[in-house]
What does this fold into?
Amino acid sequence: MRKANPQSIAKSDPFALLCSRISALCRSFVDSTIRVWAARLEVRWWTSTPRGLPAWGPRLFPAAGILLCVGLCPGAGFGRSPAENWYQLPQSRTQSAHRAAQPLPNSQSGLPSITKVEPPSWWAGHTINPVRLLARGTNLAGARVRAANPAIRVSGVFVNENSTYVFVTVNINPSAPPGSYPLILETRHGQTTIPFTIEPPLTTKTHFQGITGDDVIYLIMPDRFANGDPANDAPADAPAAANDRKNPRAYHGGDLRGIINHLQYFKDLGVTALWLTPWYDNWNGVNTCDKPWCPNTYYHGYHAIDYYAVEDRFGDMATLRELIEKAHALGLKIIQDQVANHVGSRHPWLKDPPLEDWFHGTLAHHTLNKFRNSVLLSPHANQEEFRNTLDGWFSDDLPDMNQEEAEVARYEIQNALWWVGMTGLDAIRQDTIQYMPRSFIRDLSNALHRQYPKMWMVGEVFERDAAQTAFFIGGHNGWDGIDTRLDSVFDFSLWNASLLTFTNKLPMRALRDQLKYDALYPDPLRITTLANNHDTVRFMSLDGATLEGAMMHTAFTLSVRGIPQLYYGEEIAMEGKEDPDNRRDFPGGFPGDKHNAFSASQRTADQQRMWQWTHDWIKLRREHSAFRHGRLIDLFYDDDAYVFARQDPNDAADTVMIGLNRSANAKNISFSTARFGLGFDDLFLHPLIGRPEPILEKKSVALTLPPRSALAYVLRGARASSN
It folds into this structure.
């Protein structure tokens, strides 16, 4: 901490020297008082009173000392009222204990300036009001902030220790019209403007629609999908080595315009929602080292340097909004990949954090996550391992955000809602969600649902243990008493079982064995069932993979309970081993590509076979509600085959049956019609996919499943006469 020079102060103000001495004593007194009383009461005494104690009790002693300091020297920095210094946080959060930096006349003699405001805009009538602004700048010591328009009120002004950030609470009149509402920041050396805008709200009829079982999600890495605007391939500050399609870890040129240009492709395939990996702005440079993963860039988007900017290689805010509007016009939803857990090491915060505990540690001093993730589930975990899993950095390059600091939590919740409100997106995928406090997940979920009732968020809990993923989904309290209110989680356990089953590593009954753990979930239909993603080896590159195995894996993903999620290129049987090989460019999306897989006429025979298969199973989901909302019934399972039904709870007549045979030989199976629970004696099995002729069954089902196949039937039946 930098200190003022008493001699310089005395020269500028005769009373200032005495004031500075008293201020130093006051600060020491207040610091020690805060530490002692806050520790004893386990609360911060300036924000709350423990139950059972009179309101004046815990405040009396420390308040007397502060009043003495203020009376002796108002310039000590403690002269503002609590209403001016602190803002109202969501329930269960505590206020920040950071002290405002004091004016430093020698080193802080310049005019104040503001270079960044987060969020730069908000909405009148929003469920978050007031909104907390974080403005970055210089020479902010002793700043006072006022509104230039009576439609907004300012309070809670707080300057950080380095005088480079100011926090400001802005209360917006619900009837304030959209427009510019600048704030005036003043110090003893001058004034500047904090730009702020009230945005017009987007209509809820066509935006913020959420995700349901009616949807099929398609995951895209923008840099690897299609290059629609070569003009943004090489930003001015990017070295040539950052743009190299021959380097699988460099930028390849894919962008938002490329996705816009191929929206009809998604519509033709039948998917209904596009999940884009992060579009936050990332560093444009190249990391060099003597390791196999160098040189590398942050083409994937998970190393944000600006939470409020669009990656310049992908486009800008106008292009992003164009994408979302055009997608909506075609009936396609958009899912944003948000990353509240960490930022990139090139973020300006790393050199100058807004608060000293903004992160868990610093670039020079931090602990790495040991990923003993089961301690998050266990009520018996020791604090050392538990804290390491929450506070440890994902890597040295990914600083871990501290959501237990109230200002950080407020910042990130507002950021999530800002992106939704600004763009009209429909859902959020939250990266590495289990490494954040469950109370924060709950508060974030509540804030999203409060403003956007249909909003949907799926969390990445990359675990092959269903108990771990079930612990984080909302709808039930964990042992800690917290319901995260999280809409969905990815079903990595079932995904793993499917991969092993359809590459002949596990018997087919393993699918049924894994599905029995659905008992751990409040509602298994809410789970997101993935075929693959950008962190996993593509199916066709797994040991034992065949095209028929990939087809069965896809059919199972699209027919089992839950919300299916596909990964770009799986529909044409793309190959790809470990990252970054599993992130190859989509063929035909880039200048110079030898063939164009967006066009059926240019796909190979295997590519077209896989594409059509994927399309047909998606079509079945769209046409039969049982695929989307039906309960799952196990009908038959052994080492080679698994047969199950999906039955619409609102229409038992809409029952579908799916049969999967992994064996190289035809499989004869039989079971009683009573297993469907429909009360029918005679059943007609009308084929939906896999064989041409209908089958009439009386009292029992006898099927022959072709080798390496997936079949689907819709059931129709009649009860026997009572005579």
Q: What stands out?
A: The first helix runs from residue 6 to 12. DSSP finds 18 helices and 28 strands in the chain.
